[in-house]
Write a structure and sequence with these properties.
about 100 residues, mainly alpha
C-alpha cells in the first residue's frame, strides 16, 4: 500500500515541476559526483592507494567546473563518460609523479 501512495505523490510532484529545473538538478548531481567517482575508482581499483588530499580536491574541483564546459562538446557518449575517462587518466598520470598514501 505504501508503494501506491509514494507513486501517486511522485506522480503529482512530477506534474507540477517544470522539467528544466529537474534537468538542471540532474546536471548538478552529475557535476559533483562524476569527478568523485573517477577519483575513487582509480584510487581503489587501479592504484590501491590514494593521492594526497590536496591533489584529490584539486582534481575534483577541476572536474566539477569542467563538467559544464564539457557539455558544450556534445560528445556521443555523454558528458559523464567523457569526464570519467579524462579525469581518471589525469588522476592516474598524477600518481606517477607524486607520493601515494594508503587508503584510509
Amino acid at each position: 500500500m505504501w508503494g501506491v501512495g509514494v507513486t501517486v505523490v511522485g506522480w503529482a510532484i512530477a506534474l507540477g515541476v517544470y522539467m528544466a529545473y529537474y534537468q538542471n538538478f540532474l546536471y548538478a548531481i552529475g557535476a559533483v559526483f562524476t569527478p568523485l567517482f573517477a577519483i575513487l575508482a582509480v584510487s581503489v581499483f587501479i592504484l590501491h592507494r590514494r593521492l594526497a588530499w590536496g591533489w584529490n580536491f584539486a582534481w575534483w574541483l577541476i572536474g566539477t567546473l569542467g563538467y559544464s564546459w564539457l557539455q558544450r562538446l556534445d560528445f556521443i557518449g555523454g558528458t559523464t563518460l567523457l569526464l570519467l575517462v579524462l579525469l581518471s587518466l589525469a588522476v592516474y598520470l598524477t600518481s606517477r609523479f607524486t607520493r601515494l598514501y594508503a587508503l584510509d
